[in-house]
Amino acid sequence: MGRVVSVLLLPILALTGVANATDVAVCTDRGRAVLELADQQAPQHVANFLKYVDMGYYAGMVFHRVKPNFVVQGGGVDRQLRPRPTLAPVPNESSNGLSNRRGTVAAARTEDPNSATAQFFVNLEDNPSLDGGTKPGYTVFGRVKDGIGVFDGISHLPTRAAGQFKGEVPNPLV
Predict the structure, then answer these.
(1) Rounded Cα distance, 172 and 157, in Å
(2) pLDDT score for 21
(3) Which of these, 49, 141, 39, lies nearest to 95 by C-alpha position?
């Protein structure tokens, strides 16, 4: 069963794939990427992400934080850099055996490990410091199956301070 929604400015399509993996196409004004979600390893985060997709939550949202050779983050604010209300947070699943390696998709959160809602980031390099260990890490719930270059390109845009953010906002917004 396919889901068609607008996410990050252009349509997104989620399809159920083989081996219990769900693919989500992310179309931006900088290109298209396909995310393969880790349905079995991070079931709560995948279900949460797909709820937001089905609700059309990501329509008009932007990537608001870019750090070259680190992460590209989005899902939290619209083109005017205003946040939208979110659903309840999801319990941390960072002990699922998945590591924050280049090309993986993880849930953004606050200092509270159980605070992840709609924001996510794509790791642009291996970031083992974001993994769980003695403390909970950042839950990896997917990987970029196709189009990692889209996120690399976004990360190399000039950045600025804008709205509530002191920096790292890409210029232009994506």
Answers:
(1) 8
(2) 80
(3) 141
CA 163/CA 45 separation, integer angstroms: 28
**For residue 149, what are the contacts with CB-CB under 8 A and spacing of at least 6?**
31
Which of 55, 53, 20 is closest to 38 using CA atoms?
A: 20
Whether the upstream peptide bond of residue 172 has omega within 30° of 0, thus cis, is: yes
d(CA 14, CA 26): 9
Q: How far is residue 164's CA from residue 169's CA, in Å, rounded to a whole number? A: 10
Separation of alpha carbons 26 and 39, rounded Å? 18
Q: In this predicted structure, what is the pLDDT of residue 53?
A: 95
The amino acid at residue 75 is: G
Which two tokens mark 27? 């179309």
CA dist., res. 108 & res. 93, Å (int): 12
- What is the value of pTM for the model shown? 0.89
Rg (CA), the chain: 15
Give which of 91, 94, 104, 73 is closest to 173, Cα–Cα: 73
Q: 45: closest CA among 89, 95, 97, 6?
A: 89
Q: Tell me which DSSP letter residue 164 carries.
A: T
Q: How far apart are CA 76 and CA 73, in angstroms?
A: 9
pLDDT of residue 4: 32
The list of the chain residues with pLDDT below 50 reads: 1-18
Residue type for 2, please? G
